[in-house]
């Protein structure tokens, strides 16, 4: 049986919105790429269990979020919430509380929206990050880059500008209360975080440092503590690189990160003490791999190369965690987000 992915894109060149990609596991190849949701700059998205899609949205000089219904493969926009300024960098979905979270890199805001029964969105709260920032040129101000759930249903927010991770409690009506703050080394550039299936450890990716931090998470008080820091690129790599996306296998044994610059997927094996060991770096056969994702059975990994307008497909060995190239140069315009549909 085939599987579908949705690809969020920028629309600065030829892209027209969100694209649907079909993976044929028997043929071990991508067989189709087609426009699914016409939209301006849907750079990140989430797919709900009801097959609704929640995506970043831009219309002219306004940015925000939008919700869509895809019944019978026909995209219908249900709602949009826009404000003056740039759109968010990330959206997180909370189906238990029927909430949507957006992280806005440019405004340093976390916005929360209630998902109503009809799929429309109503804003419930907004939190602005303020304070000291890091030493890198990209850290001229706070830059909220990620907002999504912890295993115990708190909200965890990564701030690239402040080298910071903030944990919030979330009320049933969509209000945030700060619980804890974790500060990485100066210039780390906290971008995305992923949790081990046991809920006790998390893996924090630093864009500006190209490093991965292993953190212990105490659910009792929502506090992170440092365990390990490891590079995602070789020690002798001197050209520019920005770490981007991070994913964990369901069994918690392997971690995957993307490197924009070296243009690789780096593979790490989780050790018995939950630290990690680098075991592979494999080319993405393109430029600027902003995101990637595993297939539902984790037999395949699909990577998106933003600058070279192509997707790359790998076979994944579940025992070793390593990747083998299957297909490259799959044309897709400005791909920057990969989600299973």
How would you portray this structure in words?
With 341 residues, this protein is an all-beta fold. It has a domain at 43-231: Methylamine Dehydrogenase, Chain H, CATH 2.130.10.10. The chain has no helices and 28 strands. The chain has strands spanning 3-9, 17-24, 29-38, 45-47, 53-59, 62-69, 76-84, 90-94, 99-104, 109-115, 121-128, 144-149, 155-159, 164-170, 176-183, 190-195, 201-206, 211-218, 223-231, 242-248, 254-260, 264-270, 276-283, 289-294, 300-305, 310-316, 323-331, 335-340. Strands 3-2-1-28 form a four-stranded antiparallel sheet, with no helix packed on it. A four-stranded antiparallel sheet has the order 4-5-6-7, with no helix packed on it. It starts with a strand and ends with a strand. The mean pLDDT is 97.
Helix/strand layout:
Elements: E1 3-9, E2 17-24, E3 29-38, E4 45-47, E5 53-59, E6 62-69, E7 76-84, E8 90-94, E9 99-104, E10 109-115, E11 121-128, E12 144-149, E13 155-159, E14 164-170, E15 176-183, E16 190-195, E17 201-206, E18 211-218, E19 223-231, E20 242-248, E21 254-260, E22 264-270, E23 276-283, E24 289-294, E25 300-305, E26 310-316, E27 323-331, E28 335-340
Antiparallel strand pairs: 1-2, 1-28, 2-3, 4-5, 5-6, 6-7, 8-9, 9-10, 10-11, 12-13, 13-14, 14-15, 16-17, 17-18, 18-19, 20-21, 21-22, 22-23, 24-25, 25-26, 26-27
CATH superfamily of one domain, please? YVTN repeat-like/Quinoprotein amine dehydrogenase
Number of helices: 0
Total strands? 28
- The largest sheet has its strands arranged as 3-2-1-28
């Amino acid at each position: 049986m085939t599987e579908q992915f949705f690809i969020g894109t920028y629309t600065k060149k030829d892209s027209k919105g969100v694209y649907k990609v079909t993976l044929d596991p028997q043929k071990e190849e991508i067989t189709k790429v087609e426009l699914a949701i016409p939209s301006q700059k849907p750079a990140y998205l989430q797919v709900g269990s009801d097959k609704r899609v929640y995506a970043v949205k831009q219309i002219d000089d306004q940015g925000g979020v939008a919700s869509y219904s895809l019944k019978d493969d026909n995209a219908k926009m249900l709602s949009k919430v826009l404000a003056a300024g740039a759109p968010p960098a990330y959206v997180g979905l909370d189906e238990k509380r029927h909430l949507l979270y957006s992280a806005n890199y440019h405004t340093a805001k976390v916005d929360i929206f209630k998902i109503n029964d009809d799929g429309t969105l109503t804003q419930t709260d907004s939190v602005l990050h303020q304070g000291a920032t890091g030493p890198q040129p990209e850290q001229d101000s706070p830059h909220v880059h990620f907002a999504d759930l912890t295993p115990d249903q708190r909200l965890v927010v990564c701030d690239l500008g402040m080298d910071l991770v903030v944990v919030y409690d979330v009320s049933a009506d969509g209000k945030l209360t700060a619980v804890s703050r974790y500060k990485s080394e100066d210039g780390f550039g906290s971008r995305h975080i992923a949790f081990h299936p046991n809920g006790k450890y998390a893996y924090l990716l630093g864009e500006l440092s190209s490093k991965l931090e292993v953190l212990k998470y105490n659910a009792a008080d929502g506090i992170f503590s440092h365990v390990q820091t490891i590079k995602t690129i070789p020690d002798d790599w001197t050209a520019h690189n920005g770490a981007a996306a991070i994913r964990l296998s369901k069994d918690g044994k392997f971690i995957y990160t993307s490197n924009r610059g070296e243009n690789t997927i780096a593979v790490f094996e989780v050790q018995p003490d939950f630290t990690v060991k680098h075991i592979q770096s494999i080319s993405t056969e393109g430029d600027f791999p902003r995101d990637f994702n595993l297939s539902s059975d984790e037999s395949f990994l699909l990577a998106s190369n933003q600058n070279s307008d192509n997707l790359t497909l790998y076979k994944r060995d579940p025992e070793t965690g390593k990747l083998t190239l299957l297909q490259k140069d799959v044309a897709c315009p400005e791909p920057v987000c990969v989600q299973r549909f």
